Amino acid sequence: MDPLSERETAFLVFGGIGVLLAAAVGYFVGWSNPRVVEKRVEVPVERVVEKHVSVLAEAHSTREQLAEAQAEIDRLRKQLGERVVPQKIIEAQGRQIARLKKELAHVRPGLAARTVAPGTSGTSRLAYDIVDRKRYDAPIKTQVEVHAVVKGAITEAGLRAVLQDLYAQAGNETGFKHHGGKASHVFVYLYSSKAHFDSGWGQWIAMLSRLGAGSKVDAKVRNDLVSQLYAKPKTVFGLSEAKRREIFRALWIAEGLAMKRAERAHPITSALSPDYRRANVSEQVMKQAEAVNSATAKAREEVANRFGITLDQLRKITVEGVTKNWPTP
Questions:
Q1: What is the pTM of this model?
Q2: What backbone torsions phi and psi does residue 200 show, to the nearest 5 degrees?
Q3: Of 160, 177, 296, 303, which is least surrounded by CB within 10 A?
Q4: Which domain holds residue 61?
């Protein structure tokens, strides 16, 4: 399909922005008037934003036009802040978007009926950098494993498109000695930053897997983490999000070092060692567990004292860091 003309693209871009602004007005009216919002089923504002980004990308907008639309969306997101949008507004938006496509069909026939399946390149403007690629070649399986960091306005549709793109690349790789020269197993992992990949703790935001040639391809997107990427930073306990991230990182390092010291002080005999005795090892496991618990508890106290917070506040910051997928050292 040829790229849309300037007139067509502008029609979609500014029409999409108009829909979003109309939704904002409807939101404030509906929120203040209980008769308008009879059913308080609410949806995070990020769901609203993602719909419009996808529609604009589907129209094959140029990078400049898409950036202009994204700037307007970002401005609206700041106005809405942490609020939620009533379900009725979401439904109204769906009808307006459908009408917008129908009207555009008079200019470019066929677009109204055109749908973009999750994972096709038509819905994505995401760029990505491959940070690691591994190949495994053995009689039992041939495998390609790809790790990439995505860049741009991250949406579920965009992530699925990148997954499919990298999956297709992996499927086209040749030169294996087994399984017909191609990969029988494929794994693709996407990260929102290089730091998430470097942590080594599986902090991916989307992944795809195929376990065997001809088997089902399974793709997963962590939508809760996608929404966190655009959440407005909060001040909690008088601490900025940047400071809480610093505390989270400090605790992770302190607990890790404490565990290593405790494990070195109370080693467990290997089952392959001639000195291995089941009763003795059971006792070693108990001693090591007690030492680890004691050492990590002391580490938590030291971190809390260093930053002038309580242990309960430290615990809540830890939960926040894990929930929001903050990079670990």
A1: 0.57
A2: 75, 10
A3: 177
A4: 6-104
